[in-house]
Amino acid sequence: MSTPHSAPPSPPSSPPGASGAEGEPRHAGWLELFFDLVFVAFVAQLSHGLHGDPGWREFGVFLGLYFPPWWMWANLTVSANLFQDDSARRRLAMLSAMLCLAVMAAAVPEADGDRGPAYALGYAGTRLVLLALWWPATRFPAPGRIPRWRPLTYCLLSALLWAGSAAVPAPWRYPVWAGLLLAEMVLLLTARGRGIPRRVHTGHLVERVGLFVIIVLGESVLGLITSTDHTWTVQAGVVAAIGFVLLAALWWSYFDFASTAAERVIGTASAREAYLLARDVGGFLHFFVTAAVISMAAGLATAVDDSAHDHLARGTVWALAGGLAAYHAAHALIGLRFGRPAREVAVWAVPGVVVPLLVVLGSDVLAPWLVVLLLAAEAIAHLLYAKAAMARRAEGVTG
Question: Which domain of life does the protein's organism represent (predicted)?
Fold first, then answer.
């Protein structure tokens, strides 16, 4: 993960900007919030690619184009978490990364075609930004010093190879991209958190991930609203209203239970385990959480558009119901990673995955409003179960 820093004026025992205990309140800065705005555009571009009746190719392109910017967001988020640095140098680096990501977002509609080189060069630029943020951390005295070969391979070499991939013709450049991303993940996984000079700040990390979840939920709400622009009918209004209930239930359960559990588990872990949990849950598993919501955003928007039809196209239902199933499956993996017993997780995860998949199977005979209603009912049932389970645990503690 990236670690931005200013060069220390003298050899410190810990990096500058790393002061502040875990219990000290810490919130996202204005720069981080401004930086997130580029992902509003990114999410809109990606969601648009799943509108209509997407097939397996469209889903594959969506996941392939979403992972690199998400991966960069996770890197930069952890860097901001580990070091509180508001220097002009870091601001310029983050703004440069934002510009590179904007180029990638603009390239998304044709990234699997003529705009592929722009997408690759944009990502290469973000790796150079990471190098600029990592490099000062290599000058710290042991044990906080990061070996220089890590940023040189993880950032610089990756940037050069991504830039070189722009010259590789389609479709051969896509396996190259996949290989480069895999290499980055292997480097990170094999490091196992060694060289991280301080523990992650749990509150800040949970807040940052939660803000990204708000971004993707916001795209879902926006899709519901804009779809009614050209489908101003009673049926469209009903589907949009039920869709909003579905999103509200997801928001409620996520921020009352998922984020609370994350803060509790990561906050009580050892410094190294806290970093590994942040990497696995915030970096890897939340990719699937947020990708699932983006998919649902596209499915909901199409459901409003097609609300007058007898039934929704199968690709639309996969985007919507399949997205909800993937959302619950990702949270099940998060629960297991947090050490919850498999039997306890299965009680809510199995219905959360099976019910949406049953909706997919029966979608040919279900009206659009009924598809959305069944999914909203499942989300509400999930929320009520979580609230009841929390109440039972609270009674057990007080009793």
Answer: Bacteria
> Is residue 24 classed exposed, middle or buried when 0-12, 13-18 and 19+ CB atoms within 10 A define those classes?
exposed
Length of the chain measured in residues: 399
Distance between CA atoms of residues 224 and 166, nearest Å: 36
Gyration radius of the chain over CA positions:
22
User: What Å distances lie between residue 270 and 200, 275, 381, CA to CA?
Assistant: 10, 9, 35
- Token pair of 148 as six digits: 């220089």
CB 72 within 8 A of CB 80: no
DSSP secondary structure of 202-245? HHHHHHHHHHHHHHHHHHHHHHHHHHTTS--SHHHHHHHHHHHH
> Residue 93 half-sphere exposure, CB side, CA atoms within 13 Å?
23
CA distances from 277 to 81, 268, 271, 273 (A): 14, 11, 10, 6
pTM of the model: 0.88
Spatial distance between the Cα atoms of 397 and 399, rounded to a whole number of angstroms? 5
Task: Summarize pLDDT for 70-101 with one digit per residue, the tens.
Answer: 999 998 888 888 777 778 888 999 999 999 99
CA within 13 Å, CB half, 329: 15
Buried/exposed 339-348: b ≥16 CB within 10 Å, e otherwise: eeeeeebeeb
Place of tokens 């600029």: 132
Nearest to 273 by CA among 190, 182, 338, 349: 338
Q: What is the rounded distance in angstroms from the CA atom of residue 12 to the CA atom of residue 5?
A: 13
Q: What is the DSSP letter of 167?
A: T
3-55, pLDDT tens digit by residue? 333 333 333 333 333 333 445 666 778 888 999 999 999 999 999 999 999 99
